[in-house]
Amino acid sequence: MKYIFNFILIFMFNSALAANDTVVLEKAYNEPDDKDSLQRGARNFMNYCSGCHSLEYIRYSTIADGLGISEEELMQNLMFNAAKPFEKVRSSMPPEQASKWFGVAPPDLTLMARAKGTDYIFTFLKGFYIDPNSPTGVDNVVLEGTSMPHVLWELQGLKRPFEGLEEHSGDVDLEFLTTGKLSVEEYDQFIRDTVNFLEYVSEPIRSTRRNLGFWVLMFLFFFLMLSYSLKKEIWKDV
Question: Which UniProt keywords are given for this protein, alphabetically ordered (predicted)?
Answer without folding.
Answer: Heme, Iron, Membrane, Metal-binding, Transmembrane, Transmembrane helix
